[in-house]
């Protein structure tokens, strides 16, 4: 028998926040997750779901509010799954993100090392350079929106306060134009319809704007008129692409791109370097914080100009080019072919010739490089959420660089991977969290590890 049942109403104390931004309460040793509740608060809840180990509850009333509770400025904050922390003061968010990093390092990596204050934004709104917005049909009306938390139910969105205004406007204009041309929304359940998502990507420094229409079908009826209408209303657009994704899948982009107008890429700048970006390529979404993140990675790499450096999971080669200006040679590896093409192009555009790029899985390419006699002094890694493959870590240890800089968007897998390295001769020196995604529960970290003599 559990201490609480579904539909129970009770008052609880919130003592923590999960990595997804939900409040954590304990009732007779049983854990309840309460979205929208903050640490230190006493809240009235109703239990919505119970599992053996833990359950979920909905916030009904805040009985004693945290000093960090603020009014969320976005009108759909409580429905939309995009942000989780708009009800939390920004200072509070930064503190809490640091606490979470300290806790994960300790719990999952047995590390007790200096963790700096989270590097935050002075203006933490309107920071995103990329919008990816799903579409639906609602009673014959084409609606753009975001998913509710843990669901594919779309909440209508007219503006998104963490999105650059230009992307916001672009998405609404494209919606209007598609609606005027009676382009039907894709329906996940029936597999019918045309428009799945609209992506808008804005070059923060270049001012270039790319629009990608992600469709179920290859054909869009009236596509030439649609493109002309978009351009009439958005003269800043430099690229309109169609991406076809015919599959029943949660993955947003399909494999084929078709150019409808302008260029196949847009450009942007970070730290004085120019980058070419394709629809499929990963590019950090917060340009202001990206400079701080890469700056920290570069600081931790401590290059003097003589080093051989590996940049693993290099994307379009952003960190690689930052490093290359201060190193003898940089080797970048990335699994997405379009990204590596962009990376090569970016080296050319920036006239940087001391980089070599390879396309493939880092865990396959690194052993090859080792065989080829490449001997890095420093390895920088920036893997996706699941972290590094163990075989990759193993090769890294065999290569024995004197320093490893680990950039991560998931401190849990980072702590796990760094524990592997720490058990094999690397000391974790310090960690800096960087807030790349204000008002969401995500936190990015940069860690510095040094080979023990
Ligand atoms: N350092 C880059 C990209 C980081 S995102 C930047 O800051 O822009 C992580 C990247 O790892 C993505 O580009 C993804 O395509 C790539 N990736 C994912 N799994 C990989 C693997 N097994 N080997 C190499 N790259 C991988």
From TrEMBL:
S-adenosyl-L-methionine binds at residues 284, 313, 334, 382. It holds the Pfam family tRNA_U5-meth_tr. GO terms for molecular function: methyltransferase activity. InterPro entries: MeTrfase_TrmA_AS (IPR030390), MeTrfase_TrmA_CS (IPR030391), NA-bd_OB-fold (IPR012340), SAM-dependent_MTases_sf (IPR029063), TRAM_dom (IPR002792), U5_MeTrfase_fam (IPR010280). The keyword S-adenosyl-L-methionine applies. The keyword Methyltransferase applies. The active site is at residue 409. Belongs to the class I-like SAM-binding methyltransferase superfamily. RNA M5U methyltransferase family. This is 23S rRNA (Uracil(1939)-C(5))-methyltransferase RlmD.
């Amino acid at each position: 028998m559990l201490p609480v049942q579904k539909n129970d109403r009770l008052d609880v104390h919130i003592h923590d926040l999960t990595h997804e931004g939900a409040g954590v309460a304990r009732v007779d040793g049983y854990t309840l997750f309460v979205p929208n509740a903050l640490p230190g608060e006493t809240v009235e809840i109703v239990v919505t779901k119970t599992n053996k180990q833990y359950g979920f509850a909905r916030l009904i009333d805040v009985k004693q509010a945290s000093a960090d509770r603020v009014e969320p400025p976005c009108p759909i904050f409580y429905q939309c799954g995009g942000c989780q922390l708009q009800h939390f003061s920004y200072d509070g968010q930064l503190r809490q993100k640091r606490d979470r990093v300290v806790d994960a390092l300790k719990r999952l990596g047995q590390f007790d090392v200096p963790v700096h204050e989270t590097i935050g934004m002075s203006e933490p709104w309107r920071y995103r350079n990329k919008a990816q917005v799903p579409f639906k049909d609602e009673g014959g009306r084409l609606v753009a929106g975001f998913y509710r938390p843990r669901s594919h139910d779309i909440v209508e969105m007219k503006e998104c306060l963490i999105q650059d205004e230009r992307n916001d406007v672009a998405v609404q204009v494209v919606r209007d134009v598609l609606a005027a041309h009676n382009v039907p929304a894709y329906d996940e359940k029936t597999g019918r319809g045309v428009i799945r998502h609209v992506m808008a990507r804005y070059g923060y420094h270049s001012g270039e704007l790319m629009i990608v229409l992600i469709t179920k079908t290859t054909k869009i009826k009236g596509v030439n008129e649609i493109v002309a209408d978009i351009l009439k209303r958005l003269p800043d657009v430099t690229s309109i692409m169609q991406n076809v994704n015919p599959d029943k899948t949660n993955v947003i982009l399909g494999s084929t791109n078709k150019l409808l107008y302008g260029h196949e890429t847009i450009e942007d700048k970070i730290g004085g370097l120019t980058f070419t970006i394709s629809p499929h390529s990963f590019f950090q979404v917060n340009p202001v914080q990206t400079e701080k993140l890469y700056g920290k990675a570069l600081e931790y790499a401590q290059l003097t100009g003589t080093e051989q450096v590996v940049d693993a999971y290099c994307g379009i080669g952003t960190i690689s080019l930052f490093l290359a200006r201060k190193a003898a040679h940089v080797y970048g590896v990335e699994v997405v072919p379009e990204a590596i093409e962009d990376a090569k192009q970016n080296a050319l555009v920036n006239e940087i010739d001391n980089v070599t790029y390879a396309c493939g899985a880092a865990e396959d390419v690194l052993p090859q490089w080792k065989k080829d006699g490449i001997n890095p002094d420093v390895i920088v890694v920036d893997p996706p959420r699941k972290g590094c493959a163990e075989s990759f870590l193993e090769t890294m240890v065999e290569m024995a660089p004197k320093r490893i800089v680990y950039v991560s968007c998931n401190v849990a897998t980072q702590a796990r991977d760094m524990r592997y390295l720490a058990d094999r001769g690397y000391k974790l020196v310090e960690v800096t969290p960087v807030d790349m995604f204000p008002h969401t529960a995500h936190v990015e970290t940069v860690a510095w590890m040094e080979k023990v003599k």
